[in-house]
Amino acid sequence: MKWFRKGSKQEDLSLYNLIQHFTKSGDFIHFHNPQSPKPYWISYYGSLVDAEIVHRDILPYLQDPNISGYEDFQSAVPIEKVEITSDLETIQKKMLAGSVLIQFSENDNKGALVRAEMNKAREVSIPEEEFSVVGPKESFVESLTTNLNLIRKRLPIPQLAIREFTVGTLSQTRVAVLFIEEIANEENINTVLQRIGDLKYHQILDSSYIAQMISDNENSPFPQLIDTERPDRVAGVLAEGSIVILVDGSPHALIGPTTLVKFFAALEDYFINWQLASALRVIRLFSVSFSILVTPVYVAVLTYHYELIPRDLMATLVSSRSLIPLPPFLEAVILELTIELLREAGARLPTKVGQTIGIVGGIVIGTASVEAGLTSNVLLIIVALAALASFTTPVYKMGNSIRLIRFPFLLLAELWGLIGIALAFAFLMGHLLRLTSFGRPYMEPIYPPRLEDLKDAFIRLPFKMQPKRPIELQSPDTIMFSGKKAQEMNDIDE
């Protein structure tokens, strides 16, 4: 048994020895009451059990003179699933999950397990990372039961299936896989269930652990599963045919399979009219491209390609760099690293202090570096705009990936100019084209080209023009609703 050292004798594997092993812990309670009509022993972990349940729903019924054994106690206690067992593995597992063990003899090899776990959880609050002005304001919390409730009330259908696993040899973390039967692709379901079932790790503290372990390519800087804290987003993707993974103790859900363009689609896009949503989505895609390329292009042009600079702009650049002792590459690296330092410092400090450090630090360091002649004011503006553009990505982890890939582009721009940038772009596209999410192409609908899915990719067309589910999900039920019926609008006078 897991709670005994190697070399323990088989006859030592008894419930009595298990209780004695548990009593070594300071929060374990083992109490004997010889004064009751039927003397009993009660054992439980005080840190896991709700004391109110013990005193209200268990102890009073142990004083009943009609209780003569475990079966009488099982029928008397007003708590469901009172289990009478002699299996030591089951007893250990249930007690470590918050159950109370009742024995009527200290040497009994069986006992009654009563559920009395303490449920301490944070209240449902507004989203912090995916906040939207329009739409619901609920976000997931650390309790898996609460998170499942938030999803169930949005999808009150029997087809919503939940498969639970226990992952982590030490943490014993509950992991739930959600999908809608007859809508989600069977191959996708089996892939997720198989990968989570095969996980062998000592502890799972957050859904991020799961995301790294079950991704198709763990060496890629790009996330292959969408990380979200919004139950409304989860309900929406489940209806499309996606698979969702929830982890007990984590306020984030994982969505897959997914594609690159979905990381730039904010949930708020579906709460506003399609023209504005499409414009905002195009702005996000442009901002990401600008954030990656603008600093490398600046370095490449000033280092190798002076002829590309307009004559009117040349005078401004020459005057801004006339007293700068550093080459453009080192100048850009210093400013990029400064931005990253300020961003990390702001993220690690308390909220109010972090905001102050970010604003004041940026102004002070930027002004001081320009006045000291270490950087040019033109590059300072460019780097600041690039940093600002990177914040437009709706998914936080994709924003981190964009921050990282700027530096290889910058290095190749220094080595080979615009040719280096083209080479970096070729490597990036080659990597993205080979990337998959649960075996599905990551660059869909760009490659393979699927015109049907372009209706909700770079732009968002009206709902009535999107009657089918995304092709990359390979749903057996491809039709979400009738497009023709959605366009029928009978006049009130008819």
Automatic annotation (TrEMBL):
Pfam families: GerA. The chain crosses the membrane at residues 282-304, 354-372, 378-396, 408-433. The keyword Membrane applies. Keywords: Membrane, Transmembrane, Transmembrane helix. The keyword Membrane applies. PANTHER family: LEUCINE ZIPPER PROTEIN 4 (PTHR22550:SF5), SPORE GERMINATION PROTEIN (PTHR22550). Belongs to the GerABKA family. This is Spore germination protein.
